[in-house]
Request: fold
Amino acid sequence: MDTKKLGFNSKLIHAGQFTDEFGSATVPIYQTSTFSFKSADHGAACFAGEDDGYIYTRIGNPTINALETSIAELENGYRGVACGSGMGAVTAVYFALLGAGSHIVSHNAVYGPSRVVMETLFKKFGAESTYVDATDADNVKNAIQENTKLIYIETPANPTMGITDIKAVVEVAHAHGIPVCIDNTFSSPYLQKPLDMGVDIVLHSMTKFINGHADIVAGIVVTRTEEYYAAIRGAMVNIGSNMDPHQAYMVIRGLKTLGIRIDRAQENAMKVAEYLENHSKVEWVKYPGLKSHPQYELGKSQMSGPGSVISFEVKGGFKAGKVLMDNVHLALLAVSLGGVETLIQHPASMTHSKIPKQQREEAHITDGLVRFAVGIEDIEDIIADLDQALAMI
Ligand code: PLP
Reply:
């Protein structure tokens, strides 16, 4: 079946899938580290790339390949490289495109470790980085240097929910011959397709929406061209940030319901955002679905929906936010997002605590910012939980 012609929800279920001689309805788990060759010549041909037979699971595996094929098709990309975690995907891209004397321009509100890894580990090997407010593409343009090898953006950004104009950044980058990578974790291909907007590389922490059940850590990179694919696969294979077959099976299972999970979660998130915006104890709310979001129109033009992550601050800053976090019962006080369960966390002391305070403030990650990742529970229960916790402040 040519799954490329199917609708998105049908692709979620059928793209990249295959069956075995028993007609299994789901992709089997090939839980093996290595694959035997038919002959010495066959083994040599596999290594020479003349035969596409499997060699060793770090290099490739049928279950992992099914997932890679599926996400690549959902992103309208060339091919995918699955990784053991989202950070495995981020670092595979960095390793493939950066080196001593090279430079990256990135958004100052990216996921904390995506920045920390540049400013600590890659810095040790002589790679430079500049972090700007990429929600203004001119800031990206002005930060480009002769040695800039990659523009790395997250939109919507974690945890500020700032939205970057993808097409504007692509125009600026490509005018200088620089590739653009977008971390599409917050939207998933269901809500945003960066490769269709000219982006070269897209990546995900599949730990979030794509798997969606808070039971797996996983990542993936999808590229628009063969060239970037080969470079990133080579990096992943050699640094060993590969996925495991069982992990791939779990993600394939979660992926099938991505559309209906996001529909429900963002319907809930819209109601939560409106509730918070009208609450007397709330200082501000940032959610791409609210007209008060500074890039509301831009968000609508490049995303088919606002997603289900909200950032907000209660009056009284961090102290009051702590009372809120300590008194919710339905929402779990936990990092991560994109799962079926509602989560609440405090970026300044948790996910972004390794970013110095001054840098956090420049990126609008205030000490009082609380991140709320809305799940698919009944909306009445989510709001009742917030209501009783806000009453404690
Ligand atoms: N990118 C974003 C936007 C994230 O939120 C995260 C994790 O929270 C990552 C990357 C890293 O992914 P992982 O935790 O799967 O390594």
In short: The mean pLDDT is 96. The first strand starts at residue 79 and ends at 83.
